Amino acid sequence: MPKNSAPAHSDSARPGPAARPGNTRRGLLFGGAAVSATALLAACTSNEPTTKDTPAADSRPTADTRPGKKVTIGFAGPQADHGWLNAINENARNRAEKYTDVTLDMTEGSNDTATQIGQIQTLINKKVDVLVILPADGRALTQTGLAAMKAGIPVINLDRAFASPQASRCYVGGDNYGMGLSAGRYIGEKLKNKPGAKVVELAGVDSLELTRLRTQGFDDALRNYPGIAKVARQAAEFTVESGQAKMAQLLQAQPQFDALWNHDDDQGVGALRAVAQAGRKDFLMVGGAGARSAMDAIKADDSVLKATVLYPPTMSASAIDLARALGQGKGIGGIAELEIPASLTLYSAVVTRDNVDDYLPTGFK
């Protein structure tokens, strides 16, 4: 990810349940393991009898693939200049290909707001049935979402939240506060019986709301473990280079600690380089986001990296399922409501050596 660009994760996403800090996102929220997030969407139905689904190629749950009303879904996202964003596009494309009744019209993607607005306006002019939009800048794209909704095209706002709830029919995103909470709980359980345990934090870009939320979730979790102290925090920039440089500084300043919470697996690649160069093996590391490289390292169990907390790019596959259901006038299986929810927040599962094989198909490069 370019040094000064917005990170692959939501730069304005609102976390988890309404009680969580910083969240004003409306609507019904759902939690579930990242791999099973789309299980909520299994068997998208109207009044049709349910049948067993054909398993997806990667064995993850998939919605009812029986042909229904044909739906054209417009998909607009930012430029895929980061592994997570590229995985977002791939998950959307692969999901759409599972349906014979879905046509996916995907833009090239751009980090330039004016360009992305123009791309979405083209999709509106084509009169697509549903729009899925991952904005380069949620606030800047709000008026475009409003315009689509006014034109009668329902919008699914993916990850980076619009400034107005009226700009979309449904929000689908990850849980930044929940990432920190899950990381803190995992580390807390590992160290709860160690007197005087110390932890450090390698955060993301401090000017971003998502970084603040991840730190806040982490700190809130650690409050449940009074014997554990966070002794240092260093902000990086979601890049390999910054991860290596900032981790080297942490290692020099902190000659002894027991655990590290790193916000992003891309910068974690650099962090692991710094750890190896320093010859340190005296602590455990928890990463963030769910990169394939992190999962491979966890499975190999040959480094300090023992877990990563997901920010699942499978959310775009869920968005395609929801868009199809919207276009066909259906609800989703597993809940009583006749309509799709107003909001779907994915759970930040912790991937460890014990469950890594389940999550490997979701790991992004």
Automatic annotation (TrEMBL):
The keyword Cytoplasm does not apply. Residues 1-27, 46-71 are annotated as: Disordered. It is found in: Cell envelope. Signal peptide: none annotated. PROSITE patterns: TAT. Pfam families: Peripla_BP_4. Keywords: Signal. SUPFAM superfamilies: Periplasmic binding protein-like I. Its main location: other. Residues 73-330 form the Periplasmic binding protein domain. Belongs to the bacterial solute-binding protein 2 family. This is Substrate-binding domain-containing protein. It comes from Streptomyces cremeus.
